[in-house]
Write a structure and sequence with these properties.
0% strand; homodimer; Tetracycline Repressor, domain 2; mainly alpha; DNA-binding; elongated
Chain lengths: 187, 187
DNA sequence: GTCTATAGCTAGATAGAC
DNA sequence: GTCTATCTAGCTATAGAC
């Protein structure tokens, strides 16, 4: 019998880590089992659809994270617009560990099961882009330009993460994040 | 017996396609065999180190491609600087099929074998970045700013490819490519 | 240099005890 | 709800004929 209970949030976090570090095909049931501390049969009990269910579940959690830590912060927090943006960007920096961690969205957006994940992945990018656009508009930028600049900000995050890890230089990511307020017309 | 000879260039291209579409772990020997038309034992004859050798070989070809189609074009072609940049950007657009195709560098930069590929992948990004910087400097931009802008251009290419495929909208990639001359101080 | 055949292993997935 | 034990299919890789 298990002496320590397995907390669901810990399981979610570990599953996310394995998918993010190894990709969908690289994340074997064995790795997922070792990381969570749950035997394979237990994982299948929680996720009857197997790996695909686990990855879909992880992505739904990521979507929720972006809603809470980016969208809600920018739309509903009682702070000046530049501080709401800073708070969201800080959360994003922490999520990606200043450029040291891969993006789960990207890691799961190019595998054989991607069609099952595509909608949630696109939703995450849309949340991010719409939130950035809201900041720019609130600061006086014209709406269609704001949408363009917001998409550029999302592109900068993804692109700089790719390069940071390929070049082993987290400054690339950090510089890109630091440039987003200016890109959106702030400061 | 084989009626048609297997041309090495075709094998290289097919190997690249499978790794680019499925990633390293998703590219099974069976898929690689079917795509090239060579049986598994024949692939091992050509690449004694197996999949790792194949991926490393593919990446060396990609590096050569960037040297010939970007670096050499920008450094040695007898054309005005803006036309050399346009030519290189057109080659890049074709390489990624206007945003419809994944980037092999990115697909191979996050798997268990990545340490063996890291140097070549970083070299490709460096070639691209240095070439863009050269364009900007040639056009009068101060050198350290040129380096920053060139890196932004590479980030835009990678990031827009990620987003284009996640959002199923090739315009994202095409718009990013179209913005690179301006980013580097041209037009 | 390409093939057929197969070894040896690990993958994802399930049965059934507790 | 977690476990041990196990199945089958697929994987990487090799042996040896032609």
């Amino acid at each position: 019998m298990a002496v320590t209970k397995v907390v669901p949030e810990d399981v979610d976090r570990k599953l996310s880590e394995v998918f993010t570090n190894f990709g969908y095909d690289g994340a074997s049931m064995e790795l997922l089992s070792q990381a969570t501390g749950l035997k394979k049969a237990s994982l299948y009990h929680r996720f009857p659809g197997g790996k695909r269910d686990m990855a879909a579940h992880v992505l739904k959690k990521v979507e929720l994270w972006f809603q809470q830590n980016v969208q809600d912060v920018i739309e509903h927090e009682n702070l000046p617009v530049e501080e709401r943006l800073e708070k969201a960007l800080l959360a994003i920096s922490n999520l990606f560990e200043d450029g040291a961690k891969n993006c789960s969205l990207r890691m799961l957006s190019a595998c054989s099961e991607t069609p099952y994940f595509q909608e949630t992945i696109a939703s995450c990018f849309t949340i991010l882009s719409n939130s950035f656009a809201k900041v720019a508009v609130e600061n006086g930028m014209e709406e269609s330009l704001a949408k363009t600049k917001a998409q550029e900000a999302v592109i900068n995050i993804q692109g700089s993460l790719v390069l940071s890890r390929a070049m082993k230089d987290n400054n690339i990511f950090q510089t890109s994040i630091a440039g987003i307020p200016h890109l959106l017309g702030l400061s």
